[in-house]
Design brief:
heterodimer, A: alpha+beta, Cytochrome-c3 Hydrogenase, chain B, three-stranded antiparallel beta sheet, 8 strands, B: alpha/beta, Beta Polymerase, domain 2, five-stranded mixed beta sheet, two-stranded parallel ribbon, about 25% strand
């Protein structure tokens, strides 16, 4: 930045970046007030992908809403499934069988790996390092193949359901996970070789979009972006759900709170996720993967064709659903982007009276102005990428 | 998941200090909820943030709920979290249509967008909010989609031929025939 800023008389300009812009991560519309190339004010304008998910939920049975959660953060659908079914289970007071808990941990961590890979890939692409995107897509394919083996779908998974999971986690899936765990560490190191010491990458990220811990907390930032500011807050550690309290993993934090630290945090989280998957596969017990409550768990499909009672059971489940007690519950998980919470108000019927999704992308985007103000236009791209917003989730 | 006991500091401190403002306190599924008076919401939030035993420095969410046909009609729910103490609390206020809720943006800047969302979706007005505009819907949108009397398929216009017919003299929140 030159010192003769005052001498150069430039007119303030308003630039609309997005919603159709290759580095807008979907449909982000940024209204940027510019003084020359410097940002005076950055105002995110969201809502281009608003589909009224919460309104739709009010008209659906509890078990019918699970597929809609896949479409929120479509980069890591398992985490959304988990946040939703966990909230319903909390509301109903259901305790899961051990095996289901371990399966869910593996599923959630796999989707974190997939989400972070794409976050780093698209971030590098936005800043001109296209190689990483191709590599990350290649590695993400491993995870998607495992998902396909688990439940038949690759992105819109709907694998978890209230009371457990839809299919058993077979030995074949375990084997596929183990192969992934063997391949990945070397690949992640390869990314680091390309990016972490790369001068261009460092120049574009280090010292860019700095947020202090106080600012970040005040603005409601969460997830790896907040941890990069030095706040050691991970819901998996601080309010353990499933079996995270029995698994060993570290929570990486940064010191500078800039884009570079957010990148390092995500890289380390991929490694820690693999550590978690390894332990969960090792400790996963045998046994049922659903709770033993017929109202909320449908019969297995082959039985429906042969057994009259199972057919009736299936019909009742699909058409009537199940009731949740009157009351309200909020349950949150550590999603790849931050705190993903679901708040359900129940009036005692089989449909939620009000369902609110606390999406991390939405809350995190509030910090764009604080990070971009006074910086150059090119830094906005790094700032937005470092938050990793996904608009299916942000706009709901 | 952590549960909150009845003699917890989350219950006692709030009830003791604001005994005239707390309408009801409930414990359900290990979560503590205080229903409070609208006039006291800012002072309670301020207290929750600054009190050394509570230190609710993180605003998780601000949520609108529409209890249509009840009076007061709306409920505003605040989810708070304490990063140093690792505990959560829920505050609720009830407001009628047209009433104003004091904004908490000056306590937690992060309340900005969730309050805008509640305004957009329910038409709840937050007094003292720095920039109370619609956030999801278009600026010129009429009505508030998450209200219970707003039809699921929306209102008829040139983009939505299958929507419901809008009455001639329609205003947000007016009961549909």
């Amino acid at each position: 930045m030159s010192d003769n800023n005052d001498l150069i008389a430039t007119k303030e300009l308003t630039l609309h970046m997005g919603p159709q812009h290759p580095s807008a991560h979907g449909v982000l519309h940024l209204i940027l007030d510019l003084q020359g190339e410097k940002i005076v004010h950055a105002e995110p304008d969201i809502g281009y992908l608003h589909r009224g998910t919460e309104k739709i939920a009010e008209g659906l049975l509890y078990h019918q809403f699970v597929p809609y959660t896949d479409r929120l953060d479509y980069m890591s659908a398992m985490s959304n499934n988990l946040a939703y079914v966990q909230a319903v289970e909390k509301l109903m007071g259901i305790e899961l069988p051990e095996r289901a808990k371990y399966i869910r941990v593996v599923a959630a961590e796999l989707s974190r790996v997939a989400g972070h890979l794409l976050a780093i890939g698209s971030w590098a692409l936005d800043l001109g390092a296209m190689t990483i995107l191709l590599y990350a897509m290649r590695e993400r394919e491993y995870v998607l193949d495992i998902f396909e083996q688990i439940c038949g779908a690759r992105m819109t998974l709907t694998y978890l359901r209230v009371g457990g999971v839809r299919y058993d986690f077979t030995d074949g899936c375990k084997e596929a996970c183990r192969t992934m765990l063997e391949v990945f560490p070397a690949r992640i190191d390869e990314y680091e070789t390309i990016l972490t010491g790369n001068r261009v990458w460092i120049q574009r990220n280090k010292g860019v979009g700095v947020l202090t811990a106080e600012e970040a907390i005040d603005l409601g930032l969460s997830g790896p972006a907040l941890r990069a500011s030095g706040v050691k807050w991970d819901i998996r550690k601080d309010e353990p759900y499933l079996v995270y309290d029995r698994l060993e993993f570290d929570v990486p934090t940064g010191t500078n709170g800039d884009c570079f630290d957010r990148y390092l945090c995500r890289m380390e989280e991929i490694r820690q996720s693999m550590r978690i998957i390894k332990q969960a596969l090792r400790d996963m017990p045998d046994g049922p993967f659903n709770v033993d409550i017929p109202e909320i768990v449908p019969p297995v499909k082959p039985d429906v064709y042969k057994n009259m009672e199972a057919l009736i059971h299936h019909f009742k489940y699909v058409s009537q659903g199940f009731k949740a007690p009157k009351g309200e519950a909020y349950s949150s998980i550590e999603a790849p982007k931050g705190e993903l919470g679901v708040y359900i108000v129940s009036d005692g019927s089989e449909r939620p009276f009000r369902l609110k999704i606390r999406s991390p992308s939405f809350m995190n985007l509030q910090t764009v102005n604080a990070m971009a103000e006074g910086r150059y236009l090119a830094d906005v791209v790094a700032v937005v990428s470092s938050l990793d917003p996904v608009f299916g989730e942000c706009d709901k | 998941m952590k549960t909150v006991a009845e003699d917890s500091v989350l219950v006692k401190k709030v009830v003791d200090n604001f005994w005239d403002a707390v309408v009801a306190t409930t414990l359900f599924r290990g979560e503590v909820t205080h229903m409070v008076k609208v006039s006291a919401i800012v002072s309670i939030c301020d207290f929750l943030k600054t009190d050394p035993d509570l230190r609710m420095n993180y605003l998780v969410d601000v949520i609108g709920v529409d209890y249509y046909a009840e009076t007061p009609r709306f409920e505003v729910v605040y989810h708070l979290y304490s990063l140093p103490k690792k505990h959560r609390i829920r505050l609720k206020v009830r407001v009628n249509e047209g009433d104003q809720v004091p904004s908490v943006t000056h306590i937690w800047s992060g309340a900005n967008w969730p309050e805008r969302e509640a305004f957009d979706m329910f038409g709840i007005v937050f007094e003292g909010h720095p920039d109370l505009r619609r956030i999801y819907m278009a600026e010129d949108w009429q009505g508030h989609p998450l209200r219970k009397d707003y039809p699921l398929r929306g209102y008829k216009d040139r983009y939505n031929p299958y929507g419901m017919e809008r009455e001639e003299e329609w205003s947000p929140g007016k009961k549909q025939g």
